[in-house]
Design brief:
With 469 residues, the protein is an alpha+beta fold. It is 57% helix and 17% strand. The protein is built from 8 helices and 11 strands. Helix 1 runs parallel beside helix 2 and helix 2 runs parallel beside helix 6. The termini are far apart.
Length: 469
């Protein structure tokens, strides 16, 4: 069988259209719902992401802020640790690093302070050493500027006290008998009183100076109240520490240098070294001054003997020579001889010459040889001529050279006479020594004596009163 249904097309199409519309409506609703869900999920994801990012980035931000504070110089800043994850571990490591930096910086500051203090101390020591070396240089200049021992020693004591700042400086010298150390120079008022009282200490017995001069070794007393060797001096009541150093000349003690201070323990190793150097310089200065005085005395004696020999030599020369001078006028030179009259030697006077009676300008200068007067020279010019300084210098120079030439000529003449005498003596001695017979020897001796002394009668005889043992 077949069943057929007849339906109008409009009815069939309306249902399809309705279904289609419902389906489109449902699709649109589902699309809107899906869009809303996606948007909500996106917003939720964003919110969740921001929250998670804030949770994760917060410690890092705080670490960054802490790092900025440390960079700014605040080493006390610390990062807060809120978790035990990697961020908390990083914060802990960061705090540990900051603590180490703070400790290192504190150690560096302490070391810098220590080094600064050391540098300041070293600088003060350098300045002190520089002042000490300057003082040594000034003392050395003082030593080199004076050769008189009596003036030298007080200058040395004053210079050491002024340059190095000591209360009292005294220089002792050993007496010729080597029994006492005698105070010879001081700088202080109390020392001046001691010097006026002829202060001296027995060598090897009294006080630190006595010990030093007896042993030849330096002695240091940092506390005068506790040292048994210290000599309590009423003239120096403020002394609290003292050092004495020997003055040596070729390993022999010639004195001592005594230095005292008002401060206890005032002398350190550098002071001892410097004072030892000064003591050596003082010893050398004393030796040089003594040597200078001896040389000066020897030179004065030598000059005195030289003048005496010159004076005696020229006196003997003038006794033997008849020539007393020379006069030169124009192109004519006249020798002046001594003439004898009434048993006395007389020489022709210059004033007795005719040219001397004319009106003239006279220049009179002495002729000296090694400080001894051996003659004079007179130069006369007609009229009222004024002698210039150049002319005086020329005449003086000529006279000096003439005096030396005269002395050389006199010495040469004496040497020739002495040589001739020695030659004659040698020849006679040779002739006498050549004889072996006593008679011939006596004849030869008498003959040679008669030849040497013309006109003399020579007799040689033996004494009969000779005693034999």
């Amino acid at each position: 069988y077949s069943v057929g249904v007849v339906v109008p097309v409009s009815e069939l199409q309306s249902a399809i259209t309705l279904a289609r519309e419902e389906t489109s409506s449902q699709i649109e609703s589902a699309a809107r719902l899906a869009s809303l869900l996606i948007a909500g999920m996106f917003l939720a994801a964003v919110a969740i992401s921001l929250g998670i990012g804030g949770v994760i980035a917060g410690p890092i931000v705080r670490l960054t802020e802490t790092a900025n504070q440390i960079v700014a110089g605040d080493l006390t800043a610390r990062a807060s640790v809120t978790s035990r994850d990697e961020t908390g571990t990083l914060a802990l490591a960061f705090n540990t690093m900051t603590s180490r930096l703070r400790e290192t910086l504190a150690g560096l500051e302490q070391r810098v302070e220590e080094r600064t203090a050391e540098l300041l101390t070293a600088n003060r020591n350098i300045e002190r050493r520089a002042l000490q070396f300057e003082g040594i240089a000034k003392v050395a200049r003082t030593i080199g500027s004076t050769r008189d021992l009596d003036a030298l020693l007080p200058q040395i004591a004053t210079a050491i006290s002024r340059q190095l700042g000591f209360y009292h400086v005294g220089i002792f010298l050993i007496d010729p008998g080597r029994e006492y150390a005698v105070l010879s120079a001081v700088n202080s008022e109390g020392g001046a009183k001691m010097l006026a009282n002829n202060h001296r200490l027995r060598i090897g017995e009294t006080g630190i100076v006595g010990y030093v001069t007896g042993s030849g070794k330096p002695r240091l007393v940092l506390d005068t109240g506790a040292d048994s060797v210290f000599f309590n001096n009423p003239y120096l009541p403020e002394t609290r520490s003292e050092i004495a150093l020997p003055l040596l000349a070729e390993q022999e003690v010639i004195g001592a240098m005594d230095v005292q201070s008002t401060q206890p323990s005032a002398f350190d190793q550098e002071d001892i070294s410097i004072l030892t150097t000064l003591a050596d310089q003082v010893s050398i200065a004393i030796q040089n001054a003594k040597q200078y005085e001896e040389n000066k005395r020897a030179l004065a004696e030598s000059e005195s003997l030289s003048r005496l020999f010159v004076r005696l030599g020229w006196q003997e020369f003038m006794k033997k020579q008849k020539l007393t001078g020379i006069r030169h006028s124009g192109a004519r030179a006249t020798l002046l001889y001594a003439s004898k009259g009434n048993g006395a030697d007389k020489s022709e006077s210059v004033e007795d010459q005719p040219w001397a009676r004319e009106r003239s300008s006279t220049l009179s200068l002495p002729i000296t040889l090694r400080g001894e007067f051996i003659g004079s020279v007179e130069v006369r010019a007609p009229g009222n001529r004024e002698w210039t300084q150049d002319e005086l210098d020329i005449v003086s120079a000529i006279l000096d050279r003439a005096a030396l030439a005269l002395e050389n000529a006199r010495l040469l003449e004496e040497s020739q006479k002495r040589a001739a005498k020695e030659r004659v003596i040698g020849e006679i001695s040779a002739k006498i020594s050549a004889q072996s017979n006593i008679e011939e020897l006596l004849k030869t001796a008498a003959l040679e004596l008669s030849r040497t002394l013309p006109g003399a009668e020579v007799a040689v005889q033996f004494s009969r009163d000779m005693e034999t043992e």
